[in-house]
Amino acid sequence: MFKKIFLLLFISTLSFVKAQDNVPDLLSIPGPIEYDGTEYFLSWSKPMSKTLFRQQYLPADERIEDFVQLLDFSFFNKEIEMELAVRQKVEGIQQRAKTDKFAKVNVIESPDGSEYIVDYFISESPEKGDSFVEYNVYRFKNYNTGTAKSFLILAHSKRMYGDLKSSAKSLARQRDHLLTTMIEFKIPEIKVAVTN
């Protein structure tokens, strides 16, 4: 039960986190990270619990409040049931689709079954700020070193602000490229930093 509640809290959208100065690198990932020809810099990190560590990266000229692109590493230093995490993410977007006409979700399983990709569209029309459509690609991956098991969710988000219909069409045209970029991205080695 705890695992399910924890995952539900975790797999909400990425946009609610505030950036912070002097960000500690909890996952020992050398930066900046180059992703699809853009350099991303560590902008936020937090140990969410004893087993979940999150880090977010933004291009140099972007802020979390109105980002266009964002990378999110969510690393669990324990075994997580991958199919459950995927199912919960998909069900969350399907539920959202009842009130968000732009919400759509797809799932891809790797040929060897070791990874899943969940990609989806959502839209927001906030009271303050511009409306946007957001395309997200989540990559779910289990690790097993023989002595320890862990789990990573790597996510890339891309937003387009302004008219929702034209933004959705524009992002839909970019979907194949954005999806392929995530599938082919070489995930850096991750090691939870020892803190004092």
Characterize the structure shown.
The structure is a single chain. Helices cover 23% and strands 36% of the residues. The chain has helices at residues 2-10, 82-96, 164-184; strands at 33-35, 38-47, 52-59, 69-76, 104-109, 115-124, 132-144, 149-161. The chain has an eight-stranded antiparallel beta sheet with strand order 1-2-3-4-8-7-6-5, with helices on both faces. A hairpin with a 4-residue loop joins strand 7 (132-144) and strand 8. Mean pLDDT is 88; it is low at 1-20.
Layout of SSEs?
Elements: H1 2-10, E1 33-35, E2 38-47, E3 52-59, E4 69-76, H2 82-96, E5 104-109, E6 115-124, E7 132-144, E8 149-161, H3 164-184
Antiparallel strand pairs: 1-2, 2-3, 3-4, 4-8, 5-6, 6-7, 7-8
Question: What's a concise summary of this model?
Answer:
The chain has helices spanning 2-10, 82-96, 164-184, and strands at residues 33-35, 38-47, 52-59, 69-76, 104-109, 115-124, 132-144, 149-161.
